[in-house]
Automatic annotation (TrEMBL):
Protein species of origin: Mesorhizobium hungaricum
A molecular-function term among this protein's GO annotations: magnesium ion binding
Name of the molecule in the record: DNA polymerase IV
Known catalytic reactions: DNA(n) + a 2'-deoxyribonucleoside 5'-triphosphate = DNA(n+1) + diphosphate
Pfam families: IMS, IMS_C
Encoding gene per record: dinB
Entry's family note: Belongs to the DNA polymerase type-Y family.
Every UmuC domain range: 50-230
Residues carrying the site annotation Substrate discrimination: Y59
Function per UniProt: Poorly processive, error-prone DNA polymerase involved in untargeted mutagenesis. Copies undamaged DNA at stalled replication forks, which arise in vivo from mismatched or misaligned primer ends. These misaligned primers can be extended by PolIV. Exhibits no 3'-5' exonuclease (proofreading) activity. May be involved in translesional synthesis, in conjunction with the beta clamp from PolIII.
């Protein structure tokens, strides 16, 4: 994919053109070869090697690629009127549509938007294609999600015949040409700033943040730019009069830790651009879960139970396919006023069985079935490990062995004839909510 390209000039102050990759011999505003204004210049351009790559409006971009009629239209990928926005294209974002926004609010903001139901199987397939191209650059690829990853390009210059900065630009070109979507890239000396850089000039962005400028650059940014500072914590900091990272830079570590505990140490380090985390290619999943948003809010236990069972079966199927098990069962609920509840319970042994996930989740759910109307229900497992020691015989519950064998028989039939070939009494004949579509898997 990457042929060796001789670089007659590698002056970082002159940089190179992102469109034709030609190194520049002056600081002209446009490329001396193709006339493009997309010139990358930075004093540390050829000494940095840690990158973050993020696909632009990934789900929407894939849908536009596959349906050219959508190209110039606002597109929202999401789960219907009662769902939330998974991704909005940049045209829709101009109207104020954002990811995780309730669909009804998104359509109020952009009534002309075209809503497309998510096709996770397709997105995963495209994500794997992008990932394969990343791995052609370096084995040090740490996936963060289906559409973004960190890359450490140190030591790859001899392999590609190009410095990391040019390799990154050529990679973005290749993704656009071969896969038909665009990516934005950030280049820096640490993961924290590489991630920030990739968000700068979306879509088709390319930004560089060097070590020399890190402190002065961060001083002018809001505290919400620091990982872990969400809306709630930002309000805590605001009450203490802290809104900008520059204010954190003037504070002592002991003061910050005295106020905010472990988070205070993170504020101290990241506000100064100190981040020594390495790129870890073997980034294991932390949890496996599935969830669904209802068409109408549900309060009755009889209506919630079949949904919980169906989601438990989906989580179980994914665990079995991956050869892993989880020791902690996590229940997730969102009420009609969008307040989130999560409840969890640790098991004595890891499990991958739908029966055990469901029964544990059911016990947690009964405690929350207090008349509250819910718009979302989810179930999952965390504390993952391989399934070698999963679900040992239960000496107290003598029927558990029989239920496990029955579940194994059901799995065999479903593998052969499809997911709906066999159903339990919990879900049979219970309607759409008892059979959440595949794309709602988390």
């Amino acid at each position: 994919m990457f042929a060796v390209m001789a670089a007659p000039v590698n002056d970082p102050e002159h940089g190179f053109c992102r469109d034709c990759l030609t190194p520049q011999r002056s600081r002209a505003m446009r490329c001396e070869r193709c006339g493009s204004p997309r010139i990358v210049r930075h004093a540390e351009l050829y000494s940095l090697h840690l990158a973050h790559i993020d696909c632009d409006a990934f789900y929407a971009a894939v849908e536009k690629r596959d349906n050219p009629a959508l190209r110039d239209k606002p597109v929202i990928v999401g789960g219907g009127k009662r769902g939330v926005v998974s991704t909005a294209c940049y045209i829709a974002r101009i109207h104020g549509v954002r990811s995780a926004m309730p669909m009804f609010k998104a359509l109020e903001a952009c009534p002309e938007a075209i809503v497309v139901k998510p096709d996770m199987e397709k997105y995963v397939r495209v994500g794997r294609e992008v990932r394969a191209m990343m791995l052609a650059l370096t084995p040090l690829v740490e996936p963060i999600s289906i559409d973004e990853a960190f890359l450490d390009l140190a030591g790859t210059e001899k392999l590609h015949g190009l410095p990391p900065a040019l390799v990154l630009a050529r990679f973005a070109q290749a993704v656009e040409k071969e896969i038909g979507i665009t990516v934005s890239a950030g280049l820096s000396y640490c993961k924290f700033l590489a991630k920030i850089a990739s968000d700068f000039r979306k879509p088709r962005g390319y930004a560089v943040i060097g070590e020399e400028e890190a402190v002065s650059f961060l001083a002018e940014q809001p505290v919400t730019m620091i990982w872990g500072v969400g809306k709630a914590f930002a309000e805590v900091l605001a009450r203490d009069g802290i809104r900008m990272i520059g204010q954190l830079q003037k504070m002592e570590r002991s003061d910050l830790m005295g106020r905010y505990g472990v988070m205070g140490d993170r504020l101290y380090r990241l506000s100064r651009g100190e981040d020594d985390r390495r790129v870890h290619p073997d980034h294991d999943a932390k949890s496996v879960s599935a969830e669904t948003t209802f068409d109408t809010d549900i309060a009755k236990m009889d209506d919630l139970l079949p949904v919980l069972r169906a989601l438990s079966e989906k989580v179980s199927a994914r665990l079995k396919k991956a050869g892993i098990a989880g020791r902690t069962v996590v229940l997730k609920l969102k009420s009609q006023d969008f307040k989130l509840r999560t409840r969890n319970r640790q098991l004595a042994d890891p499990t991958r069985l739908a029966d055990r996930i469901f029964s544990t989740g059911l016990d947690l759910l009964r405690r929350e079935a207090d008349g509250t109307r819910y718009r979302l229900l989810g179930i999952g497992v965390s504390d993952l490990s391989d399934d070698e020691k999963a679900d040992p015989p239960d000496l107290v519950d003598l029927q558990s062995r029989k239920r496990a064998l029955a579940e194994g028989a059901i799995d065999t039939l479903r593998d052969k004839f499809g997911r709906k070939a066999v159903e339990t009494g919990y879900t049979f004949g219970k309607g759409r909510n008892a059979h959440p579509p595949e794309h709602l898997d988390d």
